[in-house]
Amino acid sequence: MAAIFHDDIHEFWRLARPLYETDPVRNSFALAFVAAACAAPEPGSRALRGFTLHDGDEVVGAAFRNPDRPAHISGIPSERIGEVASLWHAAEPGLAGVCGPRSAADAFAAEWLRRSGRSSRDVVNLGYYRLGELVPPVGVPGASRVADRSDLPLLTGYWQGFQRDTGSWPGSGVDELRDDVLRWLDLGYGFLLWEVAGEPVALAVVRGPVGRVSRVAVVYTPPEVRGRGYGSAATTAAVRWAVGAGAEHVVLNTDLHNATSNALYRRLGFQPEEPSVELAFTGP
To answer: Which of 91, 133, 251, 260 counts the highest number of beta carbons within 10 A?
Structure first.
């Protein structure tokens, strides 16, 4: 068994993508993230470090991390988790943490802590859902449209609202958020606005399919118009956009502590998969 660390993300992607695509639902984040980093790198993504595990000529495991970020390990088979944690600890003992499906992340962390004497803490716990049969909301007024660059101020404001509500990407300024929106537009993400009488009331953002899977990345409704079904309607429009773009599966993550969003997605026909977690390694 051979382990290789990669500082060239394109070489890592050439080797790892076929492995990730054998289970595109489990690996949907890895597929979307690394594909985007190769197509349109964001600041720091060129320093993405990949890891592949080889059995002869076959790649049997893959993982990656951004600078000062946890390792994402959905591509490591369960029977290899402890071995990979040991190899990674020997190569990079200062790793910030680990993220991925709960069972895999916990197993990796257990081996890491055994070797390092450090501790870990949960940073975020995410529900993970895959769409079964779509159940659109009934009786919601309005219609959807696909947003474009002419909507940049509105989209940036909605992205800022989502970031504020969820506590994601703390400290990001308006310029950074606008750059995020522009990058996603350039990558072909679908920005689906729900409008009532021509006025936008909700947004859902969905990534184009990679490995036959699309991820709903953002759903946001301004506080003053919540509770009217607009978020559900925008999500439905995003799902239909993704299917039209060729997706066979549509997935999304939620904060497990947000009962409202978890209930909303279940009503739309999303079914729970194994939840995900990000663990930070702490201590000396």
So the answer is: 251
Which letter, b or e, does each residue of 212-234 get, where b requires 16 or more Cβ atoms within 10 Å of its Cβ?
A: ebbbbbbbbbeeeeeebbbbbbb
The residue length of the chain stands at 284
In three-state secondary structure terms, 124 is strand
pLDDT of residue 203: 98
DSSP labels for 19-32? HHTTSTTTTHHHHH
Q: Which of 29-33, 38-42, 66-70, 182-186 has the lowest mean pLDDT?
A: 38-42
Residue 14: in which H helix or E strand, if any?
helix 9-20
- Over residues 242-254, the pLDDT tens digits come to 999 999 999 999 9
CA distances from 254 to 110, 126, 270 (A): 25, 5, 11
The arithmetic mean of pLDDT across residues 256-277, rounded, is 94
> In sequence order, which residues have a C-beta less than 8 Å from that of residue 204 and are 6 or more positions away?
192, 194, 216, 218, 219, 220, 231, 234, 235, 237, 238
Adjacent-strand bridge partners of 233: none
Rounded to whole angstroms, how far apart are CA atoms 89 and 93? 5
CA 149 to chain centre: 23
